[in-house]
Design brief:
homotrimer, 137 residues, alpha+beta, Jelly Rolls, 5-stranded antiparallel beta sheet, 3-stranded antiparallel beta sheet, 3 helices, 36% strand
């Protein structure tokens, strides 16, 4: 069994942003030389998500608006007693889904026709890391 | 390390439907010969979910009604500017949870007493594929 | 490839509770001797979640209050026709996220600075099991 571990670092200029990270993941897979296995893609920060969906800007707006409706910013969250102001970001990350596991088949990420991997940042403007770990052969 | 990769194809007669796919997954595990490992079950389409919960029709209705309340159909979603009409289906899939990883122990799917794997379709009536990938020994 | 499988059993005194299970997971990893791989952490009961977020009590209250708002208890759910009264617990578990996969690197759980693994119980006061399965080398 081989394993390959890398960090991706992303700094979003905006507080909230969705970004397609599929090309970076394909690059990490290629350098690993692994042809059959699984890839875990997990944000190392707890106000961000990694998820798979369509790379379509309108949909990304819909996701952000839906999450704002379900877990609004600007509320007096209990978490804010610690001095933090990002309670909504922690909640949004859980509702969207925190991480994904991808199949690696014949040396490639094994996707359906519209599947793309995205990073969703809810508390950005700082460097954030995403852990990518592949195991296989 | 062994790996085993299969597609399940499902066409739901209704637009939205929840279906227990545990027997199909057990069949794929059996043909793999893998006795210890992990199985990824991932819909290859981005308006569907794979999740684990009770195989109880009333609960499935509750899930569908809750998702309709949180991400209603019939809204004028930004995604619809592309000509699509299924914006709510993309949102529902994210809220329910997109994929699962299952444990394989002594040649069987390692479940608690009520765990069953389900496919939730939010934009059906067409053939859809689910990727099943097992790695282990 | 090595694999290591264990159950954690938890009985929460309260019906709903969030508990940090990171120390127990680190103990299971240590006894496995696995240094590179993946760890699946999956509740074997379908009214509970395993998720990764900050170990901060205020945030845990915010999560519980948000989930109660999105999937309220005390409703007349279809699931209750079976005699059950915990329909909301099944729904909350799906919205929060049912399971996690963790990276194992150099013999340790590979986390960002604030990542902690939590068990969220929505129908407690009974012994519940969490399946922990590690594969790797």
């Amino acid at each position: 069994m081989k394993s390959h571990t890398r960090n991706l670092t992303i700094t979003t200029p905006r507080e909230r942003e969705i970004r397609d990270i599929t090309p970076e993941l394909e690059g990490i897979l290629k350098e690993s030389g692994i042809r059959e296995g699984l890839m875990l893609v997990n944000p190392m920060h707890i106000t961000a998500s990694v998820f798979v969906n369509d790379a379509e800007d309108g949909l990304h707006q819909d996701l952000m608006e839906t999450l704002e409706r379900l877990a609004p910013s600007g509320r007096d969250y209990h978490h804010h007693r610690t001095g933090e102001t990002n309670g909504d970001a922690h909640l949004k990350r859980q509702l969207l889904g925190q991480q994904v596991v991808l199949a690696v088949t014949e040396g490639r990420l094994h996707f359906g026709p519209w599947e793309r991997v995205h990073y969703a940042e809810f508390d950005g403007r700082r460097p954030k890391r995403i852990l990518v770990k592949i195991i296989g052969e």
